[in-house]
Amino acid sequence: MTAPMTPVAQTTDTPAEQAKRVNPAERVVRRVDRFQQRHPPTAFAFGVFKKFGDDRGSQLGGLIAFYGLLAFFPLTLVIVTVTGFLSHGNAHLAQQIRDSALNQFPVVGPDLNNTVKPLPGSGFGLAVGLVGLVWGALGVTQTVQYAFAEVWHVPHKSRPSFFVRVFRGLALFGLLGAGVVATVVLASLGALIGHSLLAGAAGLVGAAAVAVAMTLAVFRMLSPRTLRLTDLLPGALVGGIGWQILESIGVHLVQHQARHASQLYGTLGVVLGLISFLLIGSQLMLYAAEINAVRVDRLWPRSIVQPPLTEADRALLRSMARQEERRPEERVSVDFDGRGSS
What we know:
The protein is mainly α. It has one domain (38-325). The chain has twelve helices and no strands. It has helices at 15-20, 24-38, 40-54, 57-87, 91-102, 109-115, 123-151, 162-193, 197-222, 229-256, 263-297, 311-322. α3 (40-54) crosses α11. The protein is globular and about 75 Å long. It starts with 14 loop residues before the first helix and ends in a 20-residue tail after the last helix.
């Protein structure tokens, strides 16, 4: 005789009882997650941080730093040589322009300013050499444009052509040149005021204003959408002021550490300092761009652990999927099941 089967008990645990089965570490993380989502400042900050990771910001920053390292020394030769031509034998003016340009890289600028010499040769040969150097340095602008397309999740089929990217790269160099000129003007005005607290404060405020204006112009040029300047201003403020702080830290390190280094340490320090400076600077600008993208597209609050997904999580995942469209006739769509609902 077959024994009757015992019916299987149905699970009727409440959410609180289910939460008790979660390991203690996850309970702590979920508690932190609920806190950061309920408060707009922390939700926005975490949204920027997480989007930076989703966009592979560390890898993009490293790529920009790598091409920046390859482009830096040729561009230094260009700056030194061109300033020699423009100064028409005025050594003081040429030195002032070189100081202003190379001091934008305070970790290595003082050393390069004393060692890099102008390119010799005929005018035609020099022109050909300079064109080649600038063309090679355009690689960094190509990488920066690629990084901005990733930040704004531009579909591959909608990204600009090679010649448009080259034109934008040349325009970017023009902006940097304008920034150098503005820096020289500010330095001259500071010299007229004199060496005082007022002159130092005026120079610092003026340099920060130039950095913010240049960052805003770069963001306006490289951001793929038609955006208002007010949409780009928060990131420009963070990027410009952050760059000035980074320069100040670099000057501090040079003044208090490099002077005591040995010749071997100083040579290695120039290379390592340049790599570190470019890496930190590139990631700073990418974070500034992420601030604008998160704010414009309202990509917060984001969840630390899933499920559930927030609406911002789902919007970002849809955008990242559509980014992979490579043909005009290609369409990518994304669906979520009930487990991803918030």
